Amino acid sequence: MAALASGRGSKLASLLEELGYPATATEATAASVVKYASDSLDPAGVAAALGVIVRTAEAHAQSDRAEALASAIGGLSLSDRAKGWNVNALVDAIKGVAPGLDWDAVAAGLDQPGFIVKDQAAFKLLVTMLRRAGLDGLPSSAVLNRIWANPEGQLSLLRQAVIAPPDLFSFKSLPRKQAPVEGLANSASRNGTANEAWMSLELLDTLARLSEADHAAVRSLLEGGASMAPEVLLLGFVQIRANWGVLQREIGDALASNYVAGHENSGIVLGRLWALDPDTLMRGMCMLYERDATSINRILDVAQEVGGLNVVLERTPYPLAIELAAVAARCTPQTQPPWALQPWLQDRLAVCGVPFLQAALHFLSEKLSNGAVLPGGDGPLQSNGKVTVTLAVVATLLRVLHEKMGVMPDGAVAALRQVHSQAMSAFPSLAGLLVPAGDSNGGQAVGGPAADPKELEDIEKLANDYFQKLYTGELSVAEVVATLSSFSKGSSREKQVFHCMVHNLFDEYQFFTKYPDKELHTTAVLFGSLVRERLVTDGPLATALRCVAEAARSPPGSKLSKFAVDALTQFRDELPAWPEFCTTLLQTDHLKQADAELAAVVEKAQTGRGAGEGGE
Fold first, then answer.
1. Which of 540, 537, 593, 588 is nearest to 565 (CA)?
2. CB 272: neighbour CB atoms within 10 A?
3. What would the pLDDT profile of 335-373 be if each residue is shown by its tens digit?
4. Helix residue spans in 98-164 (DSSP H)
5. DSSP code of 385?
6. CA angle 104, 109, 111 (to 5 degrees)
7. 288 Cβ neighbours under 8 A, 6+ residues apart
């Protein structure tokens, strides 16, 4: 006899178990059986009886004691060839003998040993009995917001509930629900499924708690939800604050990675996901990166689209963060300010110390060993299945790492020198990009044996001195430009000062909104003059144009708008060479509102008709 047949209030369950389908073959038979077990018609006893019906819905054999029991009860014919349970007759008989029975308590009492719902037919039978008893169906309180002593039985009931048609069981009226996911492609329902199962936060909360008892069963149930309503499931999943354990990675992170990779509903899902739970989105990024490192550009796009690039760079594992930072340094859209790699690296080294330093060294070594360094300022984002970096990024990494040589462990210093030697051997031209670097006699560059920290400080100080003289009026913009032009073609030391000044100027862009008007105008004229005189090319030129384009989008009268007008004026004659840049400038009316004449020049340059007079 199953466990249902033991314990207080199980007499009716025992009779049904042993007599089988003939026990409810007719109304009279069912009434006889129920009256015989009338002393067990409390909620627990009736729940046990319902459990027998549900568990044996498809097939059931009589016990050896059936004949004796039938004789004791009287009026039963075991020769009756009933093919199933007559549940209406059974419930009516129970109601007749125990009219005051609390059927809500019966539903709550289904949590008993041995209770199991094998399929939709059994689930329908259970709901039919409860409705016959006068309930609306299976009360949600019987199976949600609580954990049964029999979690296997509870999960079997939930498994059938979530796939049931809404006329059999619906989650629609439950109080704790997520907001509908509007605008999904391919006519996907904003509520997931017809019975709105995966809209229910109560269902998800219950499953999260049940996962401690049966991880595999809960995972299987959630995987079914992910196939039916992935967007709704994911956005509900992250709103549950219970501990999902390993299901967080298996379900939540895995679903998030699919939308990061690219999906027709990514635009709808990712913005909401970032607002609800940025950690799950970032883990999805990590999972995608682990699976396919060449997806890094897509990860960058997503981070920028949700407005969370800085957070992603701060909170993701170092290998992904460094790769992402390197790509961001060369792929910032023209609609955004250029992303500055150097200050980010400096901050991460200061905050994270040796582990980040080691990750950066490993990153450099891997790129150099795999031939994934582009000698020019631009090129394909991937080559031979590897994510590429520009030589400028390599130079920035070496430069920042060198700044920390004085506090590095000996092993890290040796590793840096080895990486530096590897880089210089592969790219001798790297010496001109290392700022500051080497000595005036062409000695070793950053990280090399002859690097002198005092000399490096002197180069930085000399660069800053030129800026100081510019802003105090001791030197004019024209004089500084002439000096930079000379330095760009001069000795190794002079080239280092040149690169240092250009780099520092670009880094200052993020602070232009705080500049006094006079200093901002001077900076803008210098900025534009560098472009006009072709002192910046390739990657640095792209950075300069991005700065100006972004500033031109600012509201007229703002500091950045004034900067854009003053800088553009310096190289207005060069504009026909960059029609796409001109198109970007004209995407809003802000430039026209700030300076109508200059906007007209840009319009002419966009069509290649010439830019007129300009400059200072």
1. 593
2. 18
3. 455 568 889 999 999 899 999 999 999 999 999 999 999
4. 103-108, 120-132, 151-163
5. T
6. 135
7. 257, 260, 261, 295, 298, 299
